[in-house]
Amino acid sequence: MGMDAEALGRRIGEARGRAGVTQAELATEVGIDRSAIAKIESGQRRVSAVELGRTAAALQMRIEWFLDDAPHALVSRRNAQDPGSPSPRIDAMAERITREVEFVLRHDDRITPAAVQARTMPETAAGAEELAATARNLLRVPLDGPCTGLAEKVAAVGLFPFSLDLGAESADAATVLLDTGGVAIVNGGLRVGRRRLALAHELGHFLVADDYAVDWRIAETLGAEHREALFDRFARALLLPAQSLRAVWEQHTSADGDTRTAAVRIASSYRVDMATLARRLIELGLAARPDADRIRATRTNRADIVELDLVVGDELAPPALPREYERAVLRLFRSESITAARAMDLLLDTWTEDMLPTLPQRGEDQIWQYI
């Protein structure tokens, strides 16, 4: 296998710990004694190919992940954590997606993430606003007005966004920096406005070249750690640019005569959640806290959609994979570089095999070329 028993055993133990599985539980799944698992992890016993396959299945990993090094950014993060502590679910998903994306980048020469020059980390709120303006320019979005189609726009600058429902107890989002480009994982279980805010936040990490970042509850508290608070400010400024919001807020509050209707219109047009809009209005001095609290508690209903003719969008609805990435996987499948089963892995089991294109049947004379 190209790896000694001690190194392989150590990786099995690390993977088991990250999965939160005990030696006894893993032994039951593999069909061996707990003492055998202990010996494997300490390097005192070799693991057979069958046992390694069962171990991989039990820990929901691919066999080669035990044999190949994990992405550097993920290793760095794990080294900073308590040894043996279980990883959040988003960590496991980040590793899987990063490995799959790196595989596709190695084997498909037509998918080429854009190389973006790293920006300086902002140190002030004004700096975060400036970075948001820079990002809008990079995304080819006007400095005013809504930023729709955010997933496609960030993919075009090298950040591949994946939206998957990771559950209410998981983090909001994470970003992994690759040698070229990056990967963003958004918890698709969030509502659409929060999904967009999460992706905007991850774009900030990407632009300043953070190796790996996991964000649990984006913009949830005013007392957030300073660095993350600046990324929150960046995300709000990206989705709700100051000059534009000032203009439409004045326009709608004057025309509609009440803050609720104005908030419903603007949140729909800019595709943000009410909490994000309320926070942005406060930081721009456009609303007092009592008004902002009422906006935060506002829920857009069916009557609003009909009477105000609102835009109903569902960006990043899970499961959502980058279109360019999906095309690359299909190219690999059509060229028979990968099997249907491997294509399902690369597509994160969001497709079924019957969705794949039908490959041409080879004639007998063609088959002999491969023997």
Architecture blueprint of SSEs:
Layout lengths: L4 H15 L3 H8 L3 H9 L6 H10 L4 H5 L4 H9 L8 H19 L17 H14 L11 H7 L2 E6 L8 E5 L4 E6 L4 H16 L4 E4 L10 H14 L2 H15 L2 H12 L3 H10 L5 H8 L5 H6 L15 H12 L5 H7 L17 H4 L4
Parallel strand pairs: 1-3
Antiparallel strand pairs: 2-3, 2-4
Helix pairs in contact: 1-3, 2-3, 8-11, 10-11, 12-13, 14-15
What does this protein structure show overall?
By secondary structure, this protein is mainly alpha-helical. It folds into three domains: 5-67, lambda repressor-like DNA-binding domains (434 Repressor (Amino-terminal Domain)); 71-312, no CATH class; 323-361, no CATH class. 54% of the residues lie in helices and 6% in strands. The protein is built from 19 helices and four strands. It has a four-stranded mixed β-sheet with strand order 1-3-2-4, sandwiched between helices. Strand 2 and strand 3 form a beta hairpin. Helix 2 packs across helix 3 and helix 12 crosses helix 13 (259-270). The longest helix has 19 residues, at 89-107. The protein is elongated, with a radius of gyration of 24 Å. The chain starts with a helix and ends with a helix. 37% of the residues are buried.
Quick summary:
Helices cover 54% and strands 6% of the residues.
